[in-house]
Write a structure and sequence with these properties.
36% of the residues lie in helices and 17% in strands. It is an alpha/beta fold. The chain folds into two domains: 95 residues, no CATH class; 104 residues, FMN-linked oxidoreductases (TIM Barrel, Alpha-Beta Barrel). Helix 1 packs parallel to helix 2. The longest helix has 15 residues. 35% of the residues are buried.
Length: 214
């Protein structure tokens, strides 16, 4: 997945330059990829969908629904707006992964994360949901993952670990999740902004295969 993680300070609405730059970067690499790819333009669902549509991405991740307050001020999203925009730009084939508990922020009207997951699945039709820790590289809580998985059991909606997934906790977290989005733990010294460390990738995938039995 392509994400402008280091495009800081973060803002809630991406500007034209960010959308253009992300589209250019993804388009430059997509012909070298042999697997489906996704995009995330922080922290803007419409910009994310626009880049996904322009580049042929298979999926995208964002805060598509919810009301939060945090480092960026007030943060209010409506899933209906994103779904309608996806149809408007002809991107119905792009899967939407909902991050249901925003990093760097807290819900304005707090509810247990399992209740949020059940509500989002019912009201907003996500293709998958992500459960996050409080900030980039900090792990999602295993008990929260277990509660989310139990709350939406039978819905057919996959649950993904969104932050802090690494070799040391892969077995524990995958007991309750269908997959994970991984970034920081695969970088040199586990630092988000560093280059990818091939040895870390190899070690993590070996643990994942061991856990999944594949």
């Amino acid at each position: 997945m392509f994400c402008n993680e280091n495009d800081r300070p973060y803002r809630l609405d991406a500007d034209f330059a960010s959308v253009a730059a992300m589209s250019d970067v993804v388009a430059s690499f997509r012909n070298e990829l042999s697997v489906p790819f996704g995009v995330n333009v922080l922290w803007d669902p419409m910009a994310t969908l626009a880049v996904a549509a322009a580049t042929g991405a298979s999926f995208c991740r964002e805060i598509f629904t919810g009301a939060f307050a945090g480092d960026f001020g007030l943060w209010v999203r409506s899933a209906g707006d994103s779904w309608r925009y996806r149809r408007q730009i002809g991107a119905e084939n792009v899967k939407m992964i909902f991050n249901i508990n925003a990093e760097f922020a807290a819900q304005i009207a707090p509810r247990p994360v399992a209740d949020v997951a059940k509500s989002v699945v019912f009201s907003s039709s996500p293709d998958a949901i992500c459960v996050s820790g409080p900030i980039t590289s900090q792990p999602a809580d295993a008990s929260a993952l277990a509660e989310v998985t139990g709350a939406i059991d039978g819905s057919g909606v996959p649950v993904l670990v969104n932050t802090g997934f690494k070799t040391a906790n892969a077995a524990e977290l995958l007991a309750y999740a269908d997959g994970a989005i991984v970034g920081s733990s695969l970088k040199v010294d586990g630092i988000t902004w560093n280059q990818v460390d091939k040895d870390r990738v190899t070690a993590l995938m070996a643990e994942v295969r061991k856990t999944s039995g594949k």
